[in-house]
Amino acid sequence: MSEAEILDRIREIFHENFDIDPARVTPEAHLFEELDLDSIDAVDLAIKLQEMTGRRIKPEEFKQVRTVGDVIAAVESLLVTQA
């Protein structure tokens, strides 16, 4: 899965689950300050990413995620360990 494909899927997740306009979901966008996610949304996002990758996300790793770009990197890391 390419970075662009991951970003497209993340945009779908944000739109479907958090009603966020996909145009706002850019790699530079800050999850909490710009996209207004809260801690419960972050847990929901982690669950959706686990469903997307089929891999479990370690909570201590996901705590470091701050931007959409960080989410993309986390998904790429999960997909690499899966291969």
UniProtKB/TrEMBL annotation:
Which GO molecular function annotations are given, in alphabetical order?
acyl binding; acyl carrier activity
**Which pathway is this protein assigned to?**
Lipid metabolism; fatty acid biosynthesis
Q: Does the keyword Lipid metabolism apply?
A: yes
SUPFAM superfamilies given for it? Answer: ACP-like (SSF47336)
Task: Offer one example of a GO biological process linked to this entry.
Answer: lipid A biosynthetic process
One GO term of the cellular component aspect? cytosol
Q: Which residues carry this modification: O-(pantetheine 4'-phosphoryl)serine?
A: S39
Q: Where in the sequence is the signal peptide annotated?
A: none
Which Gene3D superfamilies does the entry link to?
ACP-like
Q: What is this protein called?
A: Acyl carrier protein
Question: In the UniProt record, what gene is named as encoding this protein?
Answer: acpP
